[in-house]
Amino acid sequence: MIPSIYCYLYLSSMWHTYGKMDDIPVAIVNHDQQLQYEGKTINVGYNLVEGLNKSDSLNYETVSDRKAESGIKSGKYYMVVTIPKDFSKNTTTLLTSHPKQLHLYYRLNSGRNFIILKMTTGTATAITNKVSKQVTQMYSTILLSTLSKVTNGLANIKYTKIPQTI
Protein backbone atom coordinates (compact mmCIF):
# COMPACT_ATOMS: atom_id res chain seq x y z
CA MET A 1 0.00 0.00 0.00
CA ILE A 2 2.78 2.45 0.90
CA PRO A 3 4.55 2.11 -2.48
CA SER A 4 1.21 2.78 -4.19
CA ILE A 5 0.64 5.94 -2.15
CA TYR A 6 4.19 7.09 -2.83
CA CYS A 7 3.79 6.41 -6.54
CA TYR A 8 0.47 8.30 -6.63
CA LEU A 9 1.95 11.33 -4.83
CA TYR A 10 5.02 11.35 -7.06
CA LEU A 11 3.09 11.03 -10.31
CA SER A 12 0.47 13.59 -9.29
CA SER A 13 3.21 16.13 -8.62
CA MET A 14 4.54 15.63 -12.15
CA TRP A 15 1.16 15.50 -13.88
CA HIS A 16 0.51 18.43 -16.18
CA THR A 17 3.68 20.21 -15.14
CA TYR A 18 3.18 23.15 -17.49
CA GLY A 19 -0.46 23.71 -16.48
CA LYS A 20 0.29 26.27 -13.75
CA MET A 21 3.20 28.21 -15.28
CA ASP A 22 1.27 31.45 -14.93
CA ASP A 23 1.70 31.06 -11.15
CA ILE A 24 5.52 31.11 -11.33
CA PRO A 25 6.65 34.57 -10.15
CA VAL A 26 9.27 36.37 -12.24
CA ALA A 27 10.59 39.86 -11.52
CA ILE A 28 11.36 42.32 -14.31
CA VAL A 29 13.69 45.25 -13.65
CA ASN A 30 13.54 47.79 -16.49
CA HIS A 31 16.33 50.40 -16.54
CA ASP A 32 15.93 51.11 -20.26
CA GLN A 33 15.60 54.73 -21.36
CA GLN A 34 13.63 55.66 -24.44
CA LEU A 35 15.16 57.80 -27.16
CA GLN A 36 14.30 59.51 -30.43
CA TYR A 37 15.79 58.00 -33.59
CA GLU A 38 15.02 59.36 -37.04
CA GLY A 39 11.85 60.98 -35.75
CA LYS A 40 10.60 57.83 -34.03
CA THR A 41 10.45 57.00 -30.34
CA ILE A 42 12.46 53.88 -29.58
CA ASN A 43 11.55 52.20 -26.30
CA VAL A 44 12.40 48.53 -26.68
CA GLY A 45 12.54 47.85 -22.92
CA TYR A 46 9.05 49.24 -22.32
CA ASN A 47 7.64 47.29 -25.27
CA LEU A 48 9.24 44.10 -23.98
CA VAL A 49 7.82 44.60 -20.47
CA GLU A 50 4.35 45.31 -21.87
CA GLY A 51 4.49 42.19 -24.03
CA LEU A 52 5.58 40.02 -21.12
CA ASN A 53 2.89 41.43 -18.82
CA LYS A 54 0.22 40.68 -21.43
CA SER A 55 1.41 37.11 -21.90
CA ASP A 56 0.20 34.36 -19.64
CA SER A 57 3.39 32.30 -19.79
CA LEU A 58 4.62 33.31 -16.31
CA ASN A 59 3.55 35.67 -13.53
CA TYR A 60 5.66 38.72 -14.44
CA GLU A 61 5.97 41.62 -12.01
CA THR A 62 7.85 44.84 -12.75
CA VAL A 63 9.84 45.76 -9.65
CA SER A 64 12.84 47.79 -8.48
CA ASP A 65 16.37 46.40 -8.19
CA ARG A 66 16.11 46.19 -4.43
CA LYS A 67 12.79 44.32 -4.47
CA ALA A 68 14.05 41.90 -7.13
CA GLU A 69 17.23 41.20 -5.16
CA SER A 70 15.40 40.54 -1.92
CA GLY A 71 12.72 38.55 -3.75
CA ILE A 72 15.14 36.16 -5.41
CA LYS A 73 17.05 35.66 -2.14
CA SER A 74 13.89 34.94 -0.18
CA GLY A 75 12.47 32.67 -2.88
CA LYS A 76 9.58 34.94 -3.81
CA TYR A 77 10.83 35.09 -7.43
CA TYR A 78 12.21 32.20 -9.43
CA MET A 79 13.84 34.46 -12.00
CA VAL A 80 14.83 38.12 -12.39
CA VAL A 81 15.05 39.66 -15.86
CA THR A 82 17.02 42.92 -15.95
CA ILE A 83 16.87 45.25 -18.95
CA PRO A 84 19.93 47.56 -18.95
CA LYS A 85 19.81 51.34 -19.22
CA ASP A 86 21.24 51.50 -22.75
CA PHE A 87 19.12 48.72 -24.27
CA SER A 88 17.14 50.93 -26.68
CA LYS A 89 20.23 53.00 -27.45
CA ASN A 90 22.17 49.89 -28.44
CA THR A 91 19.42 48.81 -30.83
CA THR A 92 20.07 51.95 -32.88
CA THR A 93 23.70 50.93 -33.43
CA LEU A 94 22.87 47.79 -35.39
CA LEU A 95 22.99 49.62 -38.73
CA THR A 96 26.23 51.43 -37.95
CA SER A 97 29.77 50.29 -38.65
CA HIS A 98 30.25 49.49 -34.93
CA PRO A 99 27.09 47.73 -33.71
CA LYS A 100 26.75 47.01 -30.02
CA GLN A 101 25.42 43.72 -28.78
CA LEU A 102 22.10 43.74 -26.94
CA HIS A 103 22.19 42.22 -23.47
CA LEU A 104 19.41 41.05 -21.21
CA TYR A 105 20.44 39.81 -17.80
CA TYR A 106 18.78 36.77 -16.24
CA ARG A 107 19.17 35.57 -12.71
CA LEU A 108 17.68 32.19 -11.86
CA ASN A 109 16.89 30.81 -8.44
CA SER A 110 18.19 27.33 -9.11
CA GLY A 111 18.08 26.04 -5.55
CA ARG A 112 14.32 25.89 -5.15
CA ASN A 113 12.90 23.58 -7.79
CA PHE A 114 14.62 21.75 -10.66
CA ILE A 115 11.53 21.66 -12.90
CA ILE A 116 10.88 25.37 -12.46
CA LEU A 117 14.57 26.02 -13.20
CA LYS A 118 14.14 24.26 -16.56
CA MET A 119 10.94 26.19 -17.28
CA THR A 120 12.47 29.58 -16.50
CA THR A 121 15.58 28.72 -18.54
CA GLY A 122 13.31 28.00 -21.51
CA THR A 123 11.48 31.24 -20.85
CA ALA A 124 14.76 33.18 -20.90
CA THR A 125 15.42 31.79 -24.38
CA ALA A 126 11.89 32.72 -25.47
CA ILE A 127 12.32 36.29 -24.18
CA THR A 128 15.59 36.63 -26.09
CA ASN A 129 13.85 35.44 -29.26
CA LYS A 130 11.01 37.90 -28.67
CA VAL A 131 13.47 40.79 -28.38
CA SER A 132 15.26 39.65 -31.55
CA LYS A 133 11.98 39.63 -33.42
CA GLN A 134 11.02 43.07 -32.12
CA VAL A 135 14.38 44.58 -33.08
CA THR A 136 14.25 42.92 -36.52
CA GLN A 137 10.79 44.41 -37.12
CA MET A 138 12.02 47.84 -36.05
CA TYR A 139 14.98 47.69 -38.41
CA SER A 140 12.89 46.38 -41.27
CA THR A 141 10.64 49.43 -40.85
CA ILE A 142 13.63 51.80 -40.76
CA LEU A 143 15.24 50.17 -43.80
CA LEU A 144 12.02 50.23 -45.80
CA SER A 145 11.51 53.87 -44.87
CA THR A 146 15.05 54.69 -45.97
CA LEU A 147 14.64 52.77 -49.23
CA SER A 148 11.41 54.64 -49.87
CA LYS A 149 13.25 57.97 -49.44
CA VAL A 150 16.00 56.81 -51.81
CA THR A 151 13.41 55.71 -54.37
CA ASN A 152 11.67 59.08 -54.16
CA GLY A 153 15.01 60.83 -54.52
CA LEU A 154 15.91 58.79 -57.58
CA ALA A 155 12.51 59.50 -59.15
CA ASN A 156 13.15 63.24 -58.84
CA ILE A 157 16.48 63.11 -60.64
CA LYS A 158 16.29 64.62 -64.09
CA TYR A 159 18.25 62.76 -66.66
CA THR A 160 19.78 64.66 -69.51
CA LYS A 161 20.72 62.78 -72.62
CA ILE A 162 24.23 63.62 -73.62
CA PRO A 163 24.61 63.74 -77.39
CA GLN A 164 27.20 61.34 -78.67
CA THR A 165 29.70 62.62 -81.09
CA ILE A 166 31.77 60.42 -83.25
Write a structural description:
With 166 residues, this protein is an alpha/beta fold. It has a single domain, classed as abc type-2 transporter like fold (3-Layer(aba) Sandwich), CATH 3.40.1710. The chain is 49% helix and 15% strand. The protein has a 4-stranded mixed sheet, with helices on both faces. It has a two-stranded antiparallel ribbon with strand order 2-3. It is elongated. The model has no long low-confidence stretch (mean pLDDT 75).
Write the layout of secondary structure elements.
Blueprint: H1 2-14, E1 25-30, E2 35-37, E3 40-42, H2 44-54, E4 59-62, H3 65-74, E5 79-83, H4 87-91, E6 105-108, H5 114-155
Parallel strand pairs: 1-4, 1-5
Antiparallel strand pairs: 2-3, 5-6
